[in-house]
Each structure stands twice: as C-alpha cells, then as structure tokens.
Amino acid sequence: MTTPKIVYTLTDEAPALATYSLLPVVSSFTKAAEVEVVTSDISLAARVLASFPEHLSEEQRVADTLAELGELTKRPEANIIKLPNISASIPQLKACIQELQSQGYAIPNYVDEPKTDEEKDIQARYAKVLGSAVNPVLRQGNSDRRAPPAVKAYARKFPHSMGKWSKASRSHADYMREGDFFSSEQSITMDAAGDVRIEFVNQAGAVEVKKTLALQEGEVFDSMFMSAKALDAFFERTLQECKEDGVMWSLHVKATMMKVSHPIVFGHAVRTFFKEVFDQYGDLFNELGVNPNNGMASVYDKIKTLPQSKQDEIEEAIHACYEHRPEMAMVDSVKGITNLHIPSDVIVDASMPAMIRTSGQMWGRDGKQKDVKAVMPESTYARIYQEMINFCKTNGAFDPTTCGSVPNVGLMAMKAEEYGSHDKTFEMKEDGIMRVVKADGTVLMQHNVEKGDIWRACQTKDAAIKDWVKLAVNRARQSNTTAIFWLDAERAHDRELRKKVEVYLQEHDTNGLDIRVMGYNRAIRTSMERMIRGKDTISVTGNVLRDYLTDLFPIMELGTSAKMLSIVPMLAGGGMYETGAGGSAPKHVQQVLQENHLRWDSLGEFLAIAVSLDELGQKNNNARARILGQALDQATGKLLENNKSPSRKVGELDNRGSHFYLALYWAEALAAQTEDAALASKLKPVAQALQENEAKILEELSQVQGQPADLGGYYHLDQAKANQVMRPSVTLNSILDSLK
Amino acid sequence: MTTPKIVYTLTDEAPALATYSLLPVVSSFTKAAEVEVVTSDISLAARVLASFPEHLSEEQRVADTLAELGELTKRPEANIIKLPNISASIPQLKACIQELQSQGYAIPNYVDEPKTDEEKDIQARYAKVLGSAVNPVLRQGNSDRRAPPAVKAYARKFPHSMGKWSKASRSHADYMREGDFFSSEQSITMDAAGDVRIEFVNQAGAVEVKKTLALQEGEVFDSMFMSAKALDAFFERTLQECKEDGVMWSLHVKATMMKVSHPIVFGHAVRTFFKEVFDQYGDLFNELGVNPNNGMASVYDKIKTLPQSKQDEIEEAIHACYEHRPEMAMVDSVKGITNLHIPSDVIVDASMPAMIRTSGQMWGRDGKQKDVKAVMPESTYARIYQEMINFCKTNGAFDPTTCGSVPNVGLMAMKAEEYGSHDKTFEMKEDGIMRVVKADGTVLMQHNVEKGDIWRACQTKDAAIKDWVKLAVNRARQSNTTAIFWLDAERAHDRELRKKVEVYLQEHDTNGLDIRVMGYNRAIRTSMERMIRGKDTISVTGNVLRDYLTDLFPIMELGTSAKMLSIVPMLAGGGMYETGAGGSAPKHVQQVLQENHLRWDSLGEFLAIAVSLDELGQKNNNARARILGQALDQATGKLLENNKSPSRKVGELDNRGSHFYLALYWAEALAAQTEDAALASKLKPVAQALQENEAKILEELSQVQGQPADLGGYYHLDQAKANQVMRPSVTLNSILDSLK
Question: What catalytic activity does the UniProt entry give for this protein (chains A, B) (predicted)?
Fold first, then answer.
C-alpha cells in the first residue's frame, strides 16, 4: 500500500491565491502524520494548456489533471479537497488565452465562428473548458452537507441578526393548486434496461421523436407538465389577491438550475404582470426580438432601437401596468430593479431564506420592508416555505443561539433528479400528446398537452438511490442523529422512491437509529419543531430539496450557507470535500493587486481539510491523521471564537494572518492532546515558537500591505512571485520548515 | 327476559312540549317491533315534587325518577333518550314552586336564609334540585359524538356559508409561552389506592390542608399552576403587539366549564386592559365590591351608587384606556358590549369556531369584520386553533360540500379531567408551596407558587380510561374509520395516558384498524389534511378537547354542533342518547303560549331514537328494531333534504307538521324495505293513508296556529291540555292509532 494521499486542488482567483499561504501550513502539519498532500491543478489556465499539447514545447506541456482526477474519483482511496473554480464564460476564456499567450504559450485564439476544420477542432476543444466543466467530472456521488461543530458554536456565540416575526404578518407563500408539475407527475421504475423514446403526437397524428434515452434496470423515470393556461391564471389570481389585500407581490423561481423550464415560467409572469403592454406591443416586440423569458430587461434593451417617442409610449404603457397592479418586490430599490427585471436575480433557494430571515418581508419601491406574497408556481416545493412561514408566525424567528441543526443528505449522484435541465424539457409548440414509449411501442406514460405547456422528464438511477440510502444510514449513525427521508406519499416520483428506500434500508444495520419517512410538510415541520428545541435532524432529500434546504436551514442557523461542510462521498468509496459556496471571488484578487490585502476566508478549507484528515485516518487506520483532523477542528473553533478571520480592510488581519493563527491554534491543540504523546512533544516547540513570535510574525505579515502586489499573472500566476507575496513572514516560514 | 325498553325522558320547556307530538308517532311505530318506549319524568317540577312526598297527598306523590334512572344507568340494558332539561337557577326554582303551589301542591317555599332546622332541611332538599343536577347522575360513561350520515348529506347538499379566508390574513391565536398550566403540569399514576392531601405551606412553614382525596389504584392525578405574573405579562404583551400591528384584540376563555380558574384568568385580562383604572380606583372598587372576574359589567354595576360626577370621572378613565389600547372585539357592537364585559359572553369552544368560520375575523366597535388576535392563555389547547388558522390561511376555508368529518370519542366518565372545577382549584393568597402528599407523608408533586397564582389538580380514573380506549376501538371498527388518540408526548398528563393507552389497546382486536397516537398539533393537522381530501378521522381525546372539538369540527362541517349524534355509552354497558345542544329553549314556549307555533327542531330526537333503536336491536337480536332505526334515519334524511324542519314563523310548518312528515317518510321507508315483508305490508296502508291525507292533516295542524294556547302550566303542564294543543290533527291521530 502506498502512503495515503490528500489531493488538494489548485483552482483560480482568490482561493488559488490563498492556497499559496495555507498549503505550506497544512503540509508541514500533515507530514507529522505521514500523510502526503499533493496538488492537482484544475485551474482554467491548466485546463486550457492541457487541451493543446501540440502547440506547446516539451517543458510547457501539462497533463490533463482534471481527467486524471476524474479517474481518481472512481477509486476508493480518492480524497479530494475541491476549492471553487471559474466556470468560464467566453470573455473570461479569451482573457485567459491572451494572458497565456503573453507568457509565451503558443496556444491558438478562440474562434467565435469557426469555418475551417482546424478552427472547428479548436472551438470543440475550448468548448470542453467552458462553463461548468469541473463539477460534472468530479461530483461522482451523492451529497452530505452539515454545519461543523465549530461553526455552530460560533453562531451560538456570535449570532447573526434575525428579523423579528410579527404574529400578524401578512406574508405567505402561494403556489398553484392545479395544473402544475406536481398535479401531472407520473413516475415508473424500469423493470429491465431498455431504450425509451420521448414522443410528441400532434392532433393530426404525426409523431415526432423528441429524444431517445437508454434507461437502466431499476431506474426511476418521471414525466410531468405545467399547464400554461393554469400558470397564467395562477399569476393573475396572485396579482388580484395582492391588489385586494394590499400585500406586495414577488416571484421566486430557479431559472439557473431549472435552466429550461423556469425561464419560461418567469416569462409567463412577465407577460401576465404587463399584460396590456404585451397585448398592445406584442407584434412589435416579436419583431424586435424581445424575449419575456429574459425579463423586462429584454424589453428595455430591445426598444432602444426605436425612436424616442415610441420608447416613451411603451414606457408609459409599462408605467400604467405598475399603476393598476399591486406593488412588486424590488431587487434593488435604489436602481429601480424589480423582481421581474431579469430571471437570475431572484433565485428561490436564496431569496426565500433571505425573506424569512428578514421578518418575512422584502423591499418595496420606497426602500421599505413590507409583507409579501411569495409566488412560487411549483407546489411541490413551495409548500415547505409556507410551512416555515406559518411556523415563524406561530413561534417567532429562529434563535441561532439555541436552535438545532438540519444537515442534509441529498440525492445527486449520476445526474439524479435533474429537473428542468435542457435535454428533457420541452415547451409545446402545438396541442397534442406527449408520451414516453418503450422500444417495443408500449406507452409508459402520456399527457394531453396544449400549446405553451412545459413538459419535462427526469431520470434517477437505482445505484444512486441505493448509495443515497446507505449514506443516510451512515450519516445517522456517525452523527447519532435522527434522519428523515423527505418523500411525499402523494407524489408519484416519491412513491417509487419510497418503495426503494424501504427495501434498501433493510440492507443496513439500522438498529438503534431513528430513521423516518415523511411527506415534505410533516418533514419540515418535525425538523423545525425539533430545531427550536435544540435538536438536530438530518434531512434526507432528493436533488431539488437538497439544493433548497442546504441554503434554507444554514441561513437560519448560521446566517450563511457558505460555512457548511460539503462532502461528496463518492459512489466508488472515495470522498470529495468541497469548499467555498461563494465562488472564486475575483474582487478579492483585485484588492491584492491594488493593496496586497487578501480578504478571502479560508474557513471552508479548514473544515474540509479536517474532515478529509479524519476520513483518511479512519480508512487507513491512521490514528495520527484523525488526531490532526480533530485538532484542526479545535483550532478552527478557537479561530472563530477569537475572531481571527480575515478583515475586509487593508492594514488589518488578512488571509495570511488568519493562517498564522490557524497554525498557532493547531499546534497548541496538538501539543495539548494526550492521545499521542510523541506528536504532542513534536508540536510543543512549534506552538511555543509561534506564541513567542506572534507580534513579530504579524508585523512581517502586515508591513507588506498597502502597496500593489505583483503576481505575474491573473489566470496563470508566476509561482515564485505568488509565493513571495503570500508568504512574507520569514519567521513563520522558518518555524513551519522546522516541522519537515 | 323482559321486553326491551327505551326510556324517553320527559324534561322541560320546548323539548318537553314537542314530546307530546313526537312520542305518539314513535310509540306507534316501535310497537310494530315489540319495542316498548317508556317515559321517565325528570322535569324540574317532577324533581321538586319527588323531594317533598310528606307534603303531598297520596295521589299527588311522584317517584324519584331521576334516582331510578341513575340506578338504570348501572345496568347493561339501559337505553335512555335524554332530552335537554332546565339547570335551574334560584329564580327559576322559585317560579316552579309557585306554579306547583297554585296547582294545589302544598310544597314549602324556598328559604333564602334558613334559620330553623326545618328551614335548613327544606333548603338542603331544594339544593339537590338546583343547577346541573341531572347530567352528573346520568352521564355514567365516556362520550361518542359524530355527524349522522343524513346530517352530513344535508350539509353537502345545502352547505352553510363559510367566510372566505385571505392568505394574507393577520388573524392568529396567541398563548402563553411560559408560566401557564402546560409549563408546570405534573402527573402521576397511583400504584395503589390511597388518600392524598393537597396542602399549602406558607413561607413561615405553616401547613394548611386544602383538600383530602381518596384516589384509586391506577388513577392518574395531575397538578399544575398558572403564574399570575406571567399571565399579566402575557396579556400586556398581546395588547402591545395588537397596538403595534393594528390588529384587534380578543379574549377567549371557558369560564363556564373551568368554573374556578377561568373567571380568575378573565379578571386578570380586565385588570390588565384597564390597568390605569384599577390602579387609580382600586381601593374604591374594593369598597364597592367590584369583582373584575365578573367583567366590566361589575364595574358599571357597582359604581351606580356613586355620585354622578364620580361615575363620569371613572367612565372617562375607562374611555382613556380604550384610547391607548388596541381595538377590542365586540360581543355586540350595537349595544357596545365588549369582549371583556362579562366572562360568560365569549366561550372559547363557540367563539373560536365562529371566528374561523367568519374568515378569521370578529366584529369591531364600528360593526365591521376585522382580523384579530385571539388571546387564549392556555397553550395546551390554544395551539390547535393556531394550527387551524394557519391551515385556513394556506388552504382556504373548509368546504362543507366536500370535506370529511371529525367525530369524537371523549374521555368523560367518572368526572375524568374536570380541570378548573371548583373543588380542586385554588387562587393563592400568599407565596409558598403547593404540594400533593400521600397519607404516609411522601410528597408526590409540588410547586413553588406566588400570591395570585392559580393552582389546580385533576383526577382521571383508570376504569374510565380503559373504557375510553375500548370505545375508541369499537367506534373505529364500527365506522371503519381511522382513529387518532390526541395525546401530547410533551405534556405530563398525556405521557401517563399514553402508557395506559398502549397497554389497553393490546386488550382489543385492532387487526385491520388504523389507530394512531399523536400530539395535538400533528393530530389536528393530520385530521384537517384528511378532511379536505374528504376523509373522516375519529378524534380520541381527553375531556377538554372533547368539549372543544365537538364544537369546532361540527361548526366547520355542518354549520352547527346541534346536529351531532351525542351518545354516552355507559360503563355498565347501557347507552344514553343525548339530544339538543341548544338547551331547553324557553323562548319557544313563549311563542306557543302567544301564537300556538312551536319552532323547536326535533332533529336531535329523530337521530337519537334511530341510534337507540339500532343499539337495542343489536343487543337483543331484534332485527325489526334495527330496521325501524334504519328507516328512521332514511326518513330523517328525506326530511332534511325536503326542508321539512320547523319554520320560525307562525302559519308556516312547525314542530307538529315536521313530525307529520317524519311519520310519512318513516312509514314510506318501512313500506319500501324488503328485509321484513310483514313489517312492510303492515306499514304500506299507513304510508298510503298519510300520503293521501297530507293536505288535510297539514290544514288541521295549521288552522290552530295564530291564537294563544293554554297548556295549564309552564313547569308542570296539564297533560290533557298539552295533548290537545300538540295533537290537533284528528286525521293524523287516527292513522297513528291504526298501528296499535
């Protein structure tokens, strides 16, 4: 057996920069446990370079580390710490290419409209680098997210603000009572592997195959549709009710995740709210290429080509709608950006927790907080928000100083439950029948649809479900916590899953565990009842609820979802520890370039490393690795408690100073532990040296701040320069070196 | 074995009068099944006469029928139809005595302040007749209440009005979060029979025995207290919140049932709302004998003796309170009667369903419906109303045309769970300790109390619980309906009951039944979820919830609780069938005396007789009795469907006409049934005769209306005269006679 390894990913921007400072600390400490920390560069620049080996010199060539990492995820020893990376847009990619070229890498330019075969080949290679290219390769498992004890302790000690709830609040969630995906959902489990066709049959009987899919044995396959008429009627009703009740109107969808279905839903809301405008100028808007699915921004953008008088006329018509419609929630009341401006501004999993945290209110045009009707067409998920709103009206806002936690075990592996994603979602162009047909012609499911209806299908593989159940049982056991499977007996898809869960639960030792299966309303209610009594409850959910709940509960408990421990226990047995829900923070890098202050908070990395060490220790019977991990958790706790996280202001403690304190507390914790006397005595002098040199090290770290820093690049840093910038304390460096 | 008998009680006022018309119909029909219907006079007059045999002549003497009936309840063959009777106040008793004396009964006068031994003896005998003297003797069992199918069908066909709920309603229930009975409740189960003492120990250590009770083995005994300080703080908070939120304030207690504790609670509300008035005029009010527990009416009443200028001053001070307090819900906005006027005006089990049925609103001073904070200090029960309010906000008002039913099986036998009744409830006169002590000095429970706190204890006998569980299982089996025991694991008393229920359920065959045990919130939520899906759910509850729920759900489902079938299956095996939740209706008798129109609706009697016949048939293998009962239910259904209930207006169909239709439909149903051909052929001519003479009979019945009627008495009717008034149709009488 080889030395157990932790793979630490090198990514982009702030987290990558912070790694120059953090990794030396980590490597020094882990060496003591004979744990090797290796790096894997999956930055945008590395991925670009790996795509064009033949354009590069021998020395310039880099391996396809992402592919290698993808292979590693299929091996049980995988232990990967995954930092946030750039999901590159085309402008970002072009900037990266330009930088690499300027550094002497002879890679080709990006071609917007390729013509030659060569150009087409180049574009195809770049296409693989664009967008969300990393997660699909690495996320080979389900999801396990929880608040680490140190973070929870911090929230209890330094609670975030929570808006008081009035028992007389008028706020509520509203959702469709008929005609939505929930009402029409059908679900089957494949008794044998086989192809299915998704077909549309028009009223003349013509059959169009929209898609053919190869399904596995035991795979759960769903289909459902949302009626466009019912959706429009629903929006109109909510607007009327808001007008009558004097309550502000707001829309909450997830256009980013449900990439195809939810922009269409959003478009219906736009057309309903501004009905008179679209009635009057519909033809003109079509000519101009206005797309209501892109929000009112699209209208304002496209009408710019019109004469000013026509623009004024349309804007007056828009204004007239505002006059007779209820007040609408604002995204930015200062800039006049409403809830219907662009579809990606208001994302339900972020907007609803924010609303609930803010006394159930949102901001009106006058910049004041107001009670609101939160309109969420899909009743499947909207009900949980209404349940929480009712709960807050009854019991008041959650109290971060006393409340329990709701960690999540989410079904995600093998693209499980990817609703509304682009390849199986269709907007109906005419009336007819949508059906799912087996290769032999057997019709498995069918729906009568009308023009404009949104039909979608969804796959969930048996192996993913099986693993999810195992993960839930393991998590319940390891955390010694009640676990609730959120599966609604009234929902077709969930009925199929309930059957499987029942079977798969029997494959595990659940003795002494409290594992329950409930519908969503009861599940969230039970979790909240336990939460306000200080008890933890694991939510074991499908993919969408995973996404929603890992924001909802953390925001109540911790004020943010960024501090959650986010683990992907891989199907093959390995583990990936994800960090930084906040993205790769380009603004932070700008601040370093301008004034050499890095405000990136490496808390997510601290937490991930600790759990990675613990996992590695468990798997390899390496007690020392576990001790290291536990000590790191203690150090993180102390760091939070003493408020040694980076400040936003130049001259104050930054990312590097925070890492010094982590090293200090980690060394102290290791020196103080009694399980491993040899380790303790090894760390004692380090702890002492760090204590004694605290002032000196801080001085060395802070004196570099305030002037521009040279990193030798943005996408592809000069390693020597970056090292110099990120490790300015000779004293700290030499103490760390003493551990090697 | 003797002929099975149904005992039909003769009581007072309208129901007694209606019996003159109804009973001949019933007796004629039951004779056909060899079922004897006998009467038992438990009217106030009969009970008075039975108390003074030595004052009466031989012929005038009557038996103590109530005592006889009490004895009958202890025998398995008991089958009693109990109509509403007068719970006599002293003025009513005096009027009754005077009437009897005028009829030649030489009974003694009531003596308000007895001096001689003879007078004391007289007063003692009259005391036994006063107040609620009948129910405690007859209610020897638990309670079984449900909506009969005919009534449910009527409600579905002719739904009562239900106020629409706004999702943005501000209405809510509010209750104490600490310091109430729920928070302090302690409960024990006696492992052996024995005496316990309720003692108060003051701060000097002096022990006062407040009460000694002989407890049975297995009896559950609870104690609890409500903190006066917490109660005042709670009222003040609710008032502040209403003021801030602009929501109307209302109080909902049950001063009539919780006779001792809740008037005190009410008094605290009065003193908090009108704090400045009581602060300023407290001493004066004490002198005058103002008792805030009797409401503001007591203030207005007592200050009448003051000079006008002083009265004006006090009224101004009261007015000033109204100015700075939130708006208060009105009992009668026209007369200016507020929620705090007298404690018996607003009774939670009636006021809350009314509020929920009225869009969650109550009436303000301006006579307009408004959203309201429903203040109910006891969190034990208030939570169910908040749950229903949240449910209505989310799902809209209940729909009587589709909703399911929530019948009740209530724990009531052997004075179970009589909370706040007078003999075990105490208002603390000073700080100290209240404790429950066994004869050997062992302290079973104790509470630190402060002056003003309300301490109370409660008994629940094992035999009653055992019977209640049996009744629940039987009801679940007979109705083939899911049953939920409402027992809250977080409540001390309920934890004791849960243990017993678990054990006693095993004594029954529950195979194939769906019997669940839940806390109140989940129980009501589950029941409501099922209800809106058209499903029935039996609520199996303690005594207070029995009282509350048998109003709450019927009012949603049927618009009234008066149409419920109300059965007391006696511990000894017999049954009592109670009718008429609406009391004995003195106003109805006035109308008869003035214009010979009786608007009393005998629906409750029809339902009770049917179930009494069915029960008797089952017990005695008398198929014909069961057929009679089933036919009566059909007849009742048809009567409701054809709207042949009594009208309120003279000249229209009254109680007697309604009885004609009952006879007609009953005869038709019996003639049409095929189970018993002999019975059918016997009834066929009766049905035909009634059909043919419909117009004639109605004419005979209606022509007597419009002029005064002579009944020869009010409390003690002249039987011949009453017969003449109530049976004016010669044609109907002779058709009925033909059955004998």
Answer: D-threo-isocitrate + NADP(+) = 2-oxoglutarate + CO2 + NADPH
B371 touches chain A (CB under 8 A): yes
Q: Cβ contact (<8 Å) for A168 and B394? A: no
Parent domain of B117: 5-140+577-737
Residue B134 lies in a domain: yes
CB atoms within 10 A of CB A159: 17
Q: How many CB atoms lie under 10 A from the CB of residue B625?
A: 25
Q: What is the pLDDT of residues A598-657, one digit of tens each?
A: 999 999 999 999 999 999 999 999 999 999 999 999 999 999 999 999 999 999 999 999
Pairing state of beta strands B248-251 and B330-332?
A: unpaired
Contact between A45 and A96 under an 8 Å Cβ cutoff? The reply is yes
How crowded is residue A67: how many other Cβ atoms within 10 Å of its Cβ?
13
CA-nearest residue of chain A to B170? A168
User: How many angstroms separate the CA atoms of A509 and A511, rounded?
Assistant: 6
* Per-window interface: A 507-526 vs B, CB < 8 A: 522, 525
- Distance from the Cα of A393 to chain B's closest Cα (Å) equals 9
Nearest CA to B147 out of B570, B541, B544, B636 is that of B636
Secondary structure of B372-423 in HEC code, one letter for each residue: EEEECCCHHHHHHHHHHHHHHHHHCCCCCCCCCCCCEEECCHHHCCCCCCHH
Contacts of B522 in chain A (CB under 8 A): 522, 525
Please say whether the beta carbons of A345 and A354 come within 8 A.
no
Q: What is the pLDDT of residue B130?
A: 85
B174 and A CB contact within 8 Å? yes
- With CA atoms as reference, the chain B residue closest to A240 would be B166
Residues 394-453 on A with a CB inside 8 Å of B are 394
What total number of domains does chain A contain?
1
- With respect to residue B697, please indicate whether it lies within any of the assigned structural domains: yes
Is pLDDT of B193 > 50?
yes
Q: Strands B454-460, B425-427: parallel, antiparallel or unpaired by DSSP?
A: antiparallel
Asked, for residue B660, whether it belongs to a domain, the answer is yes
In this structure, what is the dihedral angle of CA atoms B156, B157, B162, B166, given to the nearest 10 degrees?
70
Sites in chain A below the pLDDT cut of 50: 1
Is there a contact between A337 and A296 (Cβ–Cβ < 8 Å)? no
> Which residue reads 């109107």 in tokens?
A249
d(CA A494, CA A488): 6
Contacts of B247 in chain A (CB under 8 A): 168
Residue in B426, B571, B599, B481 with CA at minimum distance from that of residue B147 = B481
Instruction: Point out the residue among B245, B521, B522 whose CB comes nearest to the CB of A166.
Output: B245
Which residues of chain A does B525 touch, with a Cβ-Cβ cutoff of 8 Å? 522, 525
Residues on chain B touching A168 (C-beta within 8 angstroms)? 170-172, 241-242, 245-247, 371, 373
Q: Which pairing describes strands A79-82 and A515-518: parallel, antiparallel, or unpaired?
A: unpaired
Q: Is residue A169 within 8 angstroms of chain B, CB to CB?
A: yes
Q: In sequence order, which residues have a C-beta less than 8 Å from that of residue A601 and are 6 or more positions away?
A: A645, A646, A655, A658
